[in-house]
Every structure is written in C-alpha cells, then in structure tokens.
Amino acid sequence: MKTIFTTLLVIFTAVMCVCCIYFKRTKTEVSKSLFRLHCGAIFSCVLYLFSIFNLPALLSYFINSIYYASIHFLLILLTNFIFTLTQFPFKEEHKKYVVSLKKIWLFLFTLDALSFLLNPFFHHEFELSRLFVNKDVFLCWTPRFFWPFQIHLGLCYILSALIFIVLGIKIWQTNRFYRSKYIITIAIFFIVLLINAFFLWLDTYLDFSILLYSVFSIICSYFTIYATTKRVQNTMLQQLSETINIGIFVFNLDRKCIFSNKTAKNLQFTTDALLEELKSLLIYRKDLIKRNIKIILNDQEHTLAEEFCYLLDSQKKICGYILKMNDITEELKRSAEESYRSTHDELTGLLTRKAFYEEGERILKSEPDTERYLICTNIKNFKLLNDLCGSEIGDALLKEFANLLKAEKTKSILSGRITGDRFAILINKEDLDKDHGLEKIFKLENFISDSQLANYKFHILIGIYKITDPTEKIGVMYDKAALTLKHISDNYSINVAYYKKEMLSSLEKNKKILDSFKQALKNNHFKMYLQPQVRCSDEKVAGAEALVRWETENGSSFSPEKFIRVLEDNGQIYRLDQFIWEQAAQTIQRWQAQKIDLSIAVNVSANDFYHLDLFKHFTALVKKYGIPPQKLKLEITETVLIHDLTLHKQTLTKLQDFGFIIEMDDFGSGYSSLMVLKNIDVDILKIDMAFLSKTEHEERSKKILQYVIKMAQKLGIKIIVEGVETLEQAKFLKKLHCDFFQGYLYSKPVSTEEFERKFLQQFQKTGQDGGNDQ
Ligand code: C2E
Ligand code: CA
Ligand code: CA
C-alpha cells in the first residue's frame, strides 16, 4: 500500500515538474503564478514523501511541522494565482488595499510557521504516533485543538473563503464566453476542499487527498491557460473565415472538399469543373498556383484571384490543400481609377505634369530617331478672365482647350496640363508640318463650341522647341519652350514663336542684371530722370514723370527697357521703385519750399502690390516729407488689375480717398483697356504714343484717339498723350482739347538738375502762372 502510494506521489510530482517547465516557457502573468503554485505544491509533496518514511521521531516531527506550515503557504500561493487569473482587485484604486492585505497575511503566516516549528518541542499543534499495519510502519497524525492550531485552521478557512468570493464575483461579472475557466477553477477548488474534509473525517494513516490535489491542479492549469486560449483562437478563426470576403475551400489529401466558408459557398459559380481542373493541376505541380480568372456572373464580368496552397501540419508536412478565391473586380476597378486620377488632371482629363514628363521621356527613349517638337501654350490674360468673368468661364475655357487637344489624339500627340493655363504638347515633326497639325489650337476662338465662351476673345501664346537631343530632360525642353513665350507675351500680333539659342543667352544676360542690381542700388547708380508734362492750352510745364536711369561705373547708362522687365519678373522691382518714389517725394518737398507748385508722376509696377502695403507706404511717404498726396501721382498699367482685380482695386480706391491721383498708363496699348476702365475709376488716362505713330492706319488712329478723348471728357477723366514728337501732333492734340502732352518735342527725360535748370528758371521767370492744375 505504502509503495503504491509513494510511487503514485512520485509520478504526480514528476508531472508537476514537467508542468513547471511549460509554465516557465509561457511568459504570461497567469503562467508565472501557476509556476510558483506548482513549485509550492512540489515542495509540499516532497515533504510528505519524506514524512512517510520511518525516520527518527524528532526529524519526523520537524518534517511534518514544515509540511503543515507549507499547506498554509500553498494556500497563499493559490490565492495569488486566483488573484492573477481573475485580475483581482477589479478596480485599480483598490490595489493598495490588496498589497496591505498581502503584507498582513505574510506576517500571520510567519507566526503560524514559527508555531509549527516549535511543535517538536511543545506538541501544541499536533501529535505523531507510530502505527504498524501489515508490517508497514505509518506515522499517525493527531491535531491538538489548542488555540494555535485553531488559528492555523481559521487562517486557512479565511483564505479559502476569499478564493470562493473572488471567483464567485468574477463568474458573476464575466461574459459567458470567458466564464467557463472560472467555473472550472471554483468547481475543482470545491471538490478539493470536500475531499480534504472527507479524508480528515476518514482519519486514514495516508493522506490520499494530496494525490488528488496534484491531478486537479494539472486539470485546472490545462483549462485556465491552454484550453481557453485555444477556444478563443478557434472561435476567432471560425468567425474570421466566415466574415472575410475571400472564399476558402479546404481539401484533404484525397482532394475531397472538407471545409468551405460562407463566401466560398456563395461562390458556387466556381463550378465543380473549375475545382476539378485545379485539382488536376495539383497532381503535376508541387509549387503554389496563383492566377486571375475571369467569369461571368449575373451578366457581368468578374475577376477572381485564385490561390492554391498547401495545408501543413505541425511538422510542416502536407496534410491537404487550401484554395482561396477572391473577387477582385471592384478592387481592380478602384485601382484603375486611382491610377487614372494620379496621372490625369481632374479638370481637363489631360496628363498631369509628372505623368506627361514620364510618358514623354518614355516615348523619346523608345523612338529616338523620330523628329519631334515640344510645345508650350499659355492663354494670355487668363487671370483677368477669371477675375472679371468668374472661374467658371476660366474652367470652361481650359476644358475646351483640353478637348481640342484630346481630339488631336489620332495624330502622334501627347498632351498634358503643366500648371494653371499652361499646357504642353509633344508632337511629331511631320504632324506639325502637315496640314498645320495644331491649327485649332493656334486659332482657338474659331473652334470654341461652348456657348458660354462665345462672346469672348482669346489669345493663345505658343512656344515651340525643336527637340535636337532626345536624351535631354523633358522638363528642360518645356522650360525652353516656355522661355519663347516671354519674347512674344507683349506682342498682340504674334502668337507663335520658335525657341532660339539666343533666348537662353538673353536669360543669362538677365541673370547678370539681377546679380549686379542690389550692389548698384547700394552704390547710388540709379538716378531719377524727369520728363516734363506740358499743358496743351499754353504749352507750359505742369509736372513731370519720374523715369529711372541706371548709370554704370564707366559712365554709360542703360535703358529701363533692358532691366525693368527683368526686375519685375524676379520680384525685385519694388526695391527700385521705393528708391525712385523717395527721390520724387524729396524733390517735391524741395520745390514746395521754393514755392514751385509742380507734381511728379511715379511708375507703380504690378509687382509692387504683392511686396508692399502700398496704402501704408505712400501715406507714410507723403507724411514724412510733408507734401500733399495730390503732388505725387501714381501711374499704373492695366497689368496691375489683370493680376488681382478686386484686391488691387480696393488699394487704389483707398489711395484715391486719401487724395492720391491715379493715372492709367499706356492706355490703348494693352488688351482690355476698356474693360479695365469700366471696372476702375481712374483720374487721368495716359494714352500710349502708339496711337500717333505713322502707320498706314494713321487716319483711323487719329479718329480713335479723338473718340477716346471725347469719352474721357464725358467721364470727367483728364488725358495726357505721351510720345509727342512733332509740332503737327501737338497741334492736333490741341484741336482735340487734350489736357496735357509729354514727349521728345518738348524734352527727353533729363536729370533732376537739368530739369530744374531748364524748366524751373523759365517757370520762375513767368511767376506762378505756370502752376500745376492737373
Ligand atoms: P513709360 O512709363 O510708358 O514711360 C514712357 C517712356 O516713353 C519712357 O521711356 C520715355 O523716355 C519714353 N518717351 C517719352 N517721350 C517719348 C517720345 O516722344 N518718343 C519716344 N519714342 N519715347 C518717348 P523709358 O524712360 O525708357 O522707360 C521705359 C519704361 O520703363 C517706362 O514706360 C516704364 O514702364 C518703365 N519705367 C521707367 N522708369 C521706371 C520706374 O522708376 N519704375 C518702374 N516700375 N518702371 C519704370
Ligand atoms: Ca509711366
Ligand atoms: Ca507710358
């Protein structure tokens, strides 16, 4: 009997040791506490094993004392495990109470253990007596029901009760799915207690309950850390396979379908024939099969992505096959749409810049011997059209333009929208030469079909670059084509230009100008020249226009035409303009001090509106020099309004309200003068000398000028005509009752000193009667 018991106990202890190794490997909190619990249990079992042997009395007493104390310790470890398993305390804020409770309990345990260790001497906890049964000697254990033993029992009962309560609450609170592991734990614990009581009551000389404890502890571990996790995994996998949009078929080694998920069942159109075909493929192929197939379902073509792979067991041996079927029709459609969106412009449907460059480079690389051109187009005054007529009209125009380009697709043409109103076209030479390839684009307005656009006139600028080196970056080719546009942007009679090498060298010249500009400004190389503005009625000087001159160190000067445009294009003109405005204000102040009542008109570039707060700047300037705003006139061109009509109009109105006089410069030379006149209330019109130049249409020009002057008079706007070179012109203007003129006839622009010498003396000699009434 003793041998059987000992053997069984050794086996169970060994099983628990194996469990311990497993728990050590699984590094969760629960397995850690199970590890500790099992270590405690192994310790108790080993002690019990020793206690069975017939040892000297005192040693037997000691071993038994430690064994009984260890039962209390085991209960503590069990409580710990239950706490970890149930995540007790359930509220974070209660954690501190549990920590204190554990400390108290450890203290009580220490006292209890001490009391047991003293038992060999005082026999106050239990007595041991020897019993001889069938030649075997057994140690019989009899408790002494003194208070120390009662306290020991009490402590054990309290811990057991605590375990019941915690598990009970957890079972009550937990979702049904996870409840089972707690129910199993509480049931096992209950059975253990019952068995324990039973053996106590039976009063056997061997404690069989210890054998059952080991079995139960192993069952409990299985349910708490292995079975539940597996169950969760299985449920999750099952749900996943039912909810995913991929049809899954599983075949065994005999190629019989042993599982198919919901989607797979819905995919019954993957007829048996199809499966048969795949299965027959499997016989010959050892690798995976992946392919897309097209099928017709509900009269619509669907694309299925098929994947056949092996089902492997834990030893990685083939134990079946998995067929995955995914309906990727929508996905393919979406990705095709996405790739279209990423390469095509949303508004016009043409290629985007990036896509145009990529596709263009591919074409050039694949057929390097074909002669080609790269064309850049620009819609003149597109911004003004947007501002005046609304972006709807602007968009309609862009779409119309793009449609014309798309219609040319039959020819070897690649077109794209680069930015805003700029388009690029890559075209074969013969297509451009033959039947004037892009005629529709060259004369856009004749081919407009959108009725919204019927009443507008458009001017398309076209820059053409002949590709000589197909390996050149297409972006550089585009820049060269775009560079040609700059050379024709001021000219309304030409709208097509071919790129020439000189254009690039002019670009380099511009760079030089820009590089030396700041130094020149610092070194005072810029001078304000004045050109008199003369009253028509008595031919007396009424004011002057400030015109800048750049005097280089070697004494030569170069004309504004050469550098103003460069500075404007590079956003630097505001620095120069500020300098000239300051000079003009200083001069007016000096004249004022000499009681000379003349005004100076300064040029305000369109770019100045972006770099400066013009209202603030001009009001501060006249305050600084103490001059009336009427004396500093502001000449603007229509380009100011082309850039941002509403915003700039506001600034101009504020300036006029403050007292400044606004002159519209170069009136008639631009494109939309009358349109601008309708929108902004200028004080003076400055008519471009081009009206008076001797052309074959001189008579017509004169008539137009006559009517413009009449119109201005009706609107209460004064007129200055500039570029007056002959007496005949002056007489003609007088006849038309024009207010002022400016031109070489009277004087070229001269330095301030020369202006003062020539005109102020004359002005002073005649007294104040030549005063300004502009
Ligand atoms: P603009 O404002 O139209 O100035 C009139 C231009 O016509 C001046 O050229 C002037 O010298 C020239 N001119 C005057 N009378 C006659 C004439 O009878 N016959 C001919 N053929 N020409 C005449 P300039 O000084 O070379 O200036 C050219 C342009 O440069 C100016 O045109 C103006 O747009 C710009 N500019 C000049 N100074 C400045 C400045 O300080 N700031 C800004 N932003 N632009 C300036
Ligand atoms: Ca001017
Ligand atoms: Ca002018």
Structure in words:
Helix 3 runs antiparallel to helix 4 and helix 7 packs antiparallel against helix 8. Strand 3 and strand 4 form a beta hairpin. By secondary structure, this protein is an alpha/beta fold. The strands form 4 sheets. It has an 8-stranded mixed barrel, surrounded by 4 helices. It has a 5-stranded antiparallel sheet with strand order 4-3-7-6-5. The chain has 4 domains: 234 residues, Rhopdopsin 7-helix transmembrane proteins (Up-down Bundle), CATH 1.20.1070; 88 residues, Beta-Lactamase, CATH 3.30.450; 155 residues, Reverse transcriptase/Diguanylate cyclase domain (Alpha-Beta Plaits, 2-Layer Sandwich); 257 residues, TIM Barrel. The protein contains 28 helices and 22 strands. It binds ligand C2E and calcium ion (CA) (2 copies). Ligand C2E binds next to strand 14, helix 19, helix 20 and strand 18. The site of ligand C2E has 23 residues, from strand 14, helix 19, helix 20 and strand 18.
First-to-last CA distance = 135 Å
In angstroms, what is the radius of gyration? 51 Å
Can you tell me the CATH architecture of the largest domain? Alpha-Beta Barrel
Provide the residue-averaged pLDDT: 86
Please, how many domains? 4
Low-confidence segments: 767-772
Remind me, CATH topology of the largest domain?
TIM Barrel
DSSP strand (E) fraction? 15-25%
Fourth-tier CATH superfamily name of the largest domain:
EAL domain
The beta-strand count equals 22
Approximate helicity band: 55-70%
- Summarize the main sheet: 8 strands, mixed, barrel
Structure annotation, total helices: 28
Structural class designation: alpha/beta
Strand order of the largest sheet: 13-14-16-17-18-19-20-21
Ions, cofactors and other ligands present here are: ligand C2E, calcium ion
User: How would you sum up the global shape?
Assistant: elongated
CATH class of the largest domain: Alpha Beta
